[in-house]
Design a protein that fits this description.
4 helices; alpha+beta; globular; Arc Repressor Mutant, subunit A; Dna Ligase, domain 1
């Protein structure tokens, strides 16, 4: 992990947006939200800021196969995600699957895991 980042208006805005968000956000979503608060904010600036914040350990990347990465604040603890197939938003799921080890063949050891459920979110299903 790198030393703490120099504070900038852009990074502070992005950190505040992610702190208030209940779900991981893409760079495009971050740019749209931050542009409402910071005039003239370019997408390249958001990419650079997010990259620096990931490098510094302030953000974590949420990888969904075939999708651009989303980002969430670091330190949220172990959890999984739900990806809506209609609106393309990704949501946090609290907790973890129980009895996951029962699926393993004998003598297999899990180092880590990530689970993504796919379907329709409440807004898209309703």
């Amino acid at each position: 992990m790198s030393p703490p980042l120099r504070r900038t208006k852009q990074r502070d805005t992005l950190a505040e947006i992610l702190e208030r968000s209940e779900r991981p956000l893409s760079v495009a979503e971050l740019h749209a939200a931050a542009s409402k608060r910071t005039r003239g904010l370019g997408i390249a600036t958001v990419y650079r800021a997010v990259g620096a914040m990931v490098e510094a350990g302030e953000l974590e990347s949420v990888e969904i196969a075939g999708e651009p990465p989303r980002y969430e604040r670091a330190g949220k603890g172990h959890h999984h995600h739900f990806a809506c197939e209609r609106c393309d938003r990704v949501f946090d799921l609290a907790g973890c699957l129980e009895n996951l080890r029962k699926l393993l063949p004998p003598k297999f050891r899990v180092r880590s895991h990530a689970v993504t459920l796919y379907g329709l979110c409440a807004a898209c299903a309703g």
